[in-house]
Amino acid sequence: MSRSVEAFVEKVVARNPGEVEFHQAVYEVFDSIMPYVEKNPVYQKNKILERLVEPERTIIFRITWVNDKGEIQVNRGFRVQMNSAIGPYKGGFRFHPSVNLSIMKFLAFEQVFKNSLTTLPIGGGKGGTDFDPKGKSDNEVMRFCQAFMSELFRHIGPETDVPAGDIGVGGREIGFLFGQYKKLRNEFTGVLTGKGYGWGGSLVRPEATGYGLLYFVEEMLKTRKETLKGKIVAISGSGNVAQYAAEKAMRMGGKVVSFSDSNGSVYDPNGVDEKKLKFIKELKNIKRGRIKEYADKFNCQYLDGQHPWGIKCDVALPCATQNEVDGNEAKTLVKNGCVCVAEGANMPNNPDAIKVYLDAKILYGPGKAANAGGVAVSGLEMSQNSMLLSWPREEVDRRLNDIMKAIHSQCARYGKQGDFINYVAGANIGGFVKVADAMIAQGAI
Ligand code: NDP
Fold first, then answer.
1. Measured between alpha carbons, how far is 196 from 174 in angstroms, rounded to an integer?
2. Integer distance in angstroms from the first to the last C-alpha of the chain?
3. N or C: which end of the chain has fewer CB within 10 A?
4. Which residue is closest in CA terms to ligand 1's atom 7?
5. What would the mean pLDDT of 16-38 be, rounded to a whole number?
């Protein structure tokens, strides 16, 4: 870490004690943009870095709801409205017991740069709660979502802040949240994305993060004159992102050999096919069961309590959660011949792991570039809502593909270091410039 980054991060740590994920995200971004900022003093003069680490607004609220036994439950809700320089705040809701202010701020901070990279006019935010949807009935989830929105509706809106899904928030939750917003406001607007098709949703939104990830991987491999055909792909997670990443990887000719959840991983050396993927979708989206059942059903190895990073693969796609790959696991991936790591999840590789990839000069695509397809199609959903029309599947998919290519070009433009593309630097600087220039243009606000 350079002296100036160290000094800056120290101040952030002192002002935001205990927010370790937020510190990590700030360090990762500023470490790569600092040389650019130092070459362009206008950013320092306008205190852009100091402004970027301070959310424009943070809302923390109580959620009270009643479970099926008639008992009162209390949870905590968050919405971090990080930066609106280039458009309304946009970023998902996470429903997971680990949610706290640090995780919300790290995700909102990352979202600012990611949204800027998409080429669309969207600012950055993130929200969520420590409510755990696991093991809850549909009615409990509905009552919780209604209670959550009963507070949040006054802070969001189609031109202010447009949330979407994230971990623990899929189509079911978006439906309940949208219904409550509509009831309270008495208006039908595009206040949330990830809505169902038929009531304002966009085709390809459920698939967008996973598909976009693979479009990005395709571009990365192209720089080395390679394709996904015949490559062995290790995926972690088994939720929305993992499922559609696997689907697209298979359709591009890759062989997907793993999935995971918070209990363990499955290793299927024969490769996942459409039938097995259908089983996972039903298991995770409808039955809400554990990934071990895949190993039992298809008679393959279950790695209890383990990540899939010990599996030999050409391409690794972490699609579960933050900090799920450490330095040792990254070394194992590289040693086993992995040539490309692209992040479906947000910040799944810790700083030691990232260093291993950069030192080994393998292709490494950070989440804010590689997984931006989800928010990009959310942006397209907002456009369709504003125009009161819906584009056909092919059109949305084509636009998604174009956006992922444009993100890749920005990474290459700002991250080229001789023959090597440093996608971390490329994504961070590319995302930063647009937001920073807009902030300067809008004055000291
Ligand atoms: P889902 O809730 O659909 O799936 C999450 C998956 O990750 C599940 O398999 C879950 O397992 C696993 N997981 C969650 N928390 C942990 C944990 N602490 N340890 C181990 N495994 C865990 O979420 P998504 O697929 O939507 O999101 C996955 C990642 O992708 C997140 O980092 C999210 O921020 C990121 N992302 C999502 C986007 C989207 O459009 N949905 C867009 C961009 C990024 P289990 O069932 O056991 O909890």
1. 8
2. 30
3. C
4. 320
5. 96
Q: If we measure between CA atoms, which residue out of 245, 275, 250 comes closest to residue 260?
A: 245
Predicted confidence at residue 2, as pLDDT, reads: 83
Question: What are the distances in angstroms from CA 443 to CA 54, 310, 436?
Answer: 16, 50, 11
Per-residue tokens: 221: 């491999």
Task: Read off the amino acid at residue 247.
Answer: E
Tell which one of 262, 304, 317, 349 to mutate to probe ligand 1, the residue whose CB is within 8 A of the most ligand atoms.
262
Q: What is the largest CA-CA distance in the chain?
A: 64
Mean pLDDT in the chain?
97
Whether 412 has a pLDDT exceeding 90, the answer reads: yes
Q: What percent of the chain has pLDDT over 70?
A: 100
CB 267 within 8 A of CB 304: no
126 flagged as catalytic: yes
Q: Are strands 255-256 and 232-235 parallel, antiparallel or unpaired?
A: parallel
The 10s digit of each residue's pLDDT in 29-75 is: 999 999 999 999 999 999 999 999 999 999 999 999 999 999 999 99
With contact defined as beta carbons under 8 Å apart, do 345 and 370 qualify? no
Query: What is the predicted pLDDT for the residue at 303?
Result: 98
Burial bucket for residue 367 (CB in 10 Å: 0-12, 13-18, 19+): buried
Read off φ and ψ for residue 417, nearest 5 degrees. Answer: -130, 85
What does the block give as tokens for 317?
A: 């796609």
Residue 212 has what DSSP assignment? H
pLDDT of residue 370: 98
SS3 249: helix
Q: Whose CA is nearest to atom 23 of ligand 1?
A: 167
pTM of the shown model = 0.94
What the block records as the tokens of 99 is: 């949610």
Contact by Cβ (8 Å): 352, 324: no
CA 294 to ligand 1 center in whole angstroms:
18
Q: Is the pLDDT of residue 130 over 80?
A: yes
Contacts of 442 (CB under 8 A, 6+ apart): 85
* Confidence check: pLDDT of 1 > 80: no
DSSP of 116-171: HHTTSS--EEEEEES---TT--HHHHHHHHHHHHHHHGGG-BTTTEEEE--TT--H
High-pLDDT (> 90) share of the chain, %: 99
Does 240 contact ligand 1 (Cβ within 6 A)?
A: yes
